[in-house]
Each structure stands twice: as structure tokens, then as C-alpha cells.
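// run 5 | inverse folding | seed 20
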């Protein structure tokens, strides 16, 4: 089954690599969280060519304001999620942040 991430703020649909699909399933992260992450998350370069997208305080507040309270409560536990996006646009991997992302 192919998983394609549709975002409202980006014109292109982002594809998940096979590795990212496996990581989503292993880590129990719903694809809808990745969509919200790409819509509201902050981008930071990893200095190896890829971009790390994560929820910072401003992104969390924007998501809280724009979603219904019940929907926000469902995804609140996933707000430590980050995604690594390759220069060509595919999502390489998805995980839970355990360390500070340096900017």
C-alpha cells in the first residue's frame, strides 16, 4: 500500500520512502500527524542536505488554534515527532524527538 502525504500548504504531494513507511508503523505514528507536521512544523537543515521538520512552540500553538479541541487531544501525544525530508522531496524517515534540534 502506498502512503502519499497530502498537505494543504504545499503544492506537491510528498512520498514516503519504504524506510519511512516502516518507521511510521514501528513507532505508531499516524500519517495524519505527518500531514500536520508538514503543514505547521518548523524546518531546520541537518547540514547533510536534508531538512528536519518538527513541532516547535509556535507550530504547536498554531495547530492548537486551527484544529478542534478533540482532534488536537488525539494528536497531542505525537507532538514530539520529527520527519526528515530529502532534497528531492521524499520523506526519508519519521521518529520521536529525544534530543534538541540545533538550528
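// decoded
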Amino acid at each position: 500500500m502506498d502512503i502519499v502525504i497530502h498537505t494543504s500548504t504545499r503544492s506537491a504531494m510528498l512520498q514516503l520512502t519504504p524506510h519511512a513507511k516502516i518507521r511510521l508503523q514501528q513507532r505508531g505514528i499516524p500519517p495524519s500527524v505527518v500531514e500536520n507536521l508538514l503543514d505547521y512544523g518548523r524546518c531546520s537543515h541537518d547540514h547533510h542536505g536534508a531538512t528536519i521538520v518538527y513541532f516547535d512552540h509556535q507550530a504547536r500553538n498554531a495547530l492548537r488554534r486551527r484544529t478542534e479541541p478533540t482532534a488536537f487531544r488525539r494528536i497531542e501525544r505525537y507532538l514530539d515527532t520529527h520527519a526528515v525530508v530529502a532534497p528531492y522531496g521524499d520523506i526519508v524517515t519519521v521518529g520521536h524527538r529525544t534530543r534538541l534540534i540545533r538550528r
